[in-house]
Specification:
It is built from 13 helices and 19 strands. It is an alpha/beta fold. InterPro entries: CoaB-like_sf, CoaBC, DNA/pantothenate-metab_flavo_C, Flavin_trans-like, Flavoprotein.
Length: about 425
């Protein structure tokens, strides 16, 4: 059982958060609801008190004797803001403390998750995007809003995800926080615990690919994917923190590469193929996180493909792109590990179907690619791509037990680097 602070700001989507609160309570968690004053215009105080079973206040001048604006943040295991309006994001990013919710955010030492909901124009405004970037840079999780029907006839990105999706995403963050806290406590309480090196990759070269490739159809169109590059950036930052020299090969990304990496950019799968081979030579570890297009158009149109007067549908022929991961492994093995990394890690973004599960497809891919490790995750609408959380299973070709982990992408990156470090350490011995 955990203590959750559920902040509710003044948007029409506040009504959906009542269902999220019920899910938390059914899971056994204690929940303190902190509404903003405007949010009470949408859902009243009585609703929150009935569903939470606790007193609900929105001002620092209510229930003063308990000093709630300090105590709630200090005692929380997780803070969730849903819906998070543009106003609340701005106040959180600038560190304001003009009501109970914003003051609580300044005293919270736990993980904080924002679930924005607003009209598309407000979500896409540069000010909102800058505030989101600021919050993410501080370690907060900001869940991208869903794309769908908004207030009135409007539709687009800005819709609050469904309560069940929010419950799954925020619970994953909570579980990661609990595991991290327990691990730290166990380490500090064990007098004989061996303290691992804080920089296990000191003197090592790690090459990482990230982002999604784009295969041009004509001067304005391309075949691409939903990869944002966030997981690759998180891995690169974790590798830098662990002491590695990082060579970062970036395809198209929604976020900037970390400072301190040796950056190479690539657009298409063919360009990425060449860039990865170049950056991997002489490295100790290669992590292939990029989402590479399996196919590309067989022909590129020099001018924009026009709609025809006869309404005929265009026919686009596709050809297979090279398999970068398999090609790197094959060349390394053929040359007796002389120039390419002895440890190669692939990523498999999978969807299950009637023929097999995500893990079954992942295990088959690990065997087919020939790499030492494969990170498998399930992808789909509102899963992984563009999100701040991830759930992965790390498979090893040597038969080591799989490592399963769910959490923020930064936490996933840390677990992956720890798993790789253990493998490198055993090889060095």
């Amino acid at each position: 059982m955990a203590r959750i602070v559920l902040g509710v700001s003044g948007g029409i989507a506040a009504y959906k958060v009542a269902s999220l609160l019920r899910l938390y309570r059914e899971a056994g968690h204690e929940v303190d609801v902190i509404p903003t004053r405007n949010s009470l215009e949408f859902v009243g105080r009585a609703t929150w008190e009935a569903l939470s079973g606790r007193t609900v206040t929105e001002s620092v001048f209510q229930d003063i004797e308990s000093v709630r604006h300090v105590r709630l943040g200090q005692e929380a295991d997780l803070v969730v803001i849903a819906p998070a309006t543009a106003d609340v994001l701005a106040r959180a990013a600038t560190g304001q403390a003009n009501d109970l919710l914003s003051a609580t955010l300044l005293t919270a030492h736990c993980s904080v998750v924002f679930a924005p909901a607003m009209h598309t124009e407000m979500w896409l405004h540069p000010a909102t995007q800058a505030n989101v970037a600021t919050l993410r840079s501080r370690g907060c999780t900001v869940i991208d809003p869903a794309d769908g029907r908004l207030t009135g006839k409007d539709s687009g990105p800005g819709r609050l995800p469904e309560p069940s999706d929010l419950f799954d995403a925020t619970t994953a963050v909570l579980e990661a926080h609990v595991r991290t806290t327990q691990a730290a406590s166990s380490s500090s309480n064990s007098a004989e615990a061996e303290v691992p090196s804080a920089r296990p990759f000191e003197g090592k070269i790690v090459t990482i690919s990230a982002g999604g490739t784009r295969e041009p159809l004509d001067p304005v169109r391309f075949l691409g994917n939903r990869s944002s590059g966030r997981q690759g950036v998180a891995i690169a930052q974790a590798a830098l923190d662990a002491g590695a020299d990082v060579r970062f090969v970036a395809a198209h990304m929604d976020v900037p590469a970390p400072e301190g990496v040796i950056l190479t950019t690539a657009s298409t799968a063919l360009e990425l193929h060449e860039a990865v081979f170049e950056a991997a030579r002489g490295a100790d570890v290669l992590i292939m996180n990029a989402a590479v297009a399996d196919f590309r158009p067989s022909e590129y149109a020099d001018s924009k493909i026009k709609k025809q007067d006869d309404h005929a549908d265009p026919i686009i022929h596709l050809v297979r792109n090279p398999d970068i991961l398999a090609d790197v492994v094959a060349e390394r093995d053929a040359n007796d590990f002389s120039t390419l990394p002895p440890l190669i890690v692939g990523f498999a973004a999978e969807t299950g179907d009637t023929s097999g599960s995500v893990l079954e497809y992942g295990a088959a891919k690990l065997a087919r690619k020939g790499c030492e490790m494969l990170v498998v995750n399930q992808v789909g609408q509102s899963l992984v791509f563009g999100q701040d959380t991830n759930s992965v299973t790390i498979l090893s070709a040597d038969g080591t037990a799989p490592v399963e982990f769910s959490g923020t992408k930064s936490e996933v990156a840390e677990v992956l680097l720890e798993t790789i470090a253990a493998r490198v350490d055993s090889q060095d011995k």
